[in-house]
Amino acid sequence: MKITDPPIVIEHHFQTSKEKLWHAITEQGQMVQWFFDNIEAFEPVVGFKTHFVVKNEGRIFPHLWKITEVEPYKKITYNWKYEGYPGDSDLTFELIKQKNGTKLRLTHQILESFPQNIPEFKRESCLGGWHYFIKQRLHDYLSNTK
Fold it and tell me: How many CB atoms lie within 10 A of CB 102?
């Protein structure tokens, strides 16, 4: 992911309320069900920081998140970095009420380029990951919860 790349934007319609979708993306107990299962803490409060480690193919990626913007039931943005790696980005989840549900618009904006010699930091990997998390994992999670 490079600063010259356009933002990644993923949109998906969920047949659920804004409230239910908001809780799924902002409550740690729900986030571990569909996002990262080792998120130790998360609070939708500006200034809140969390740290957790993801391992992939022998590489370790310490995730650093800091909440920068919160509009309850509408929008949350957090700064996303990896400890020990160059690169910086902002991730925004926007909830848009629609007839028969809610549209989620995810925007991942690169602020500082990530290393291009690491497969997980390539745009294609990031795009594939967001499709997986939003259109498959979150969709399945919300479809299977009351």
Answer: 21
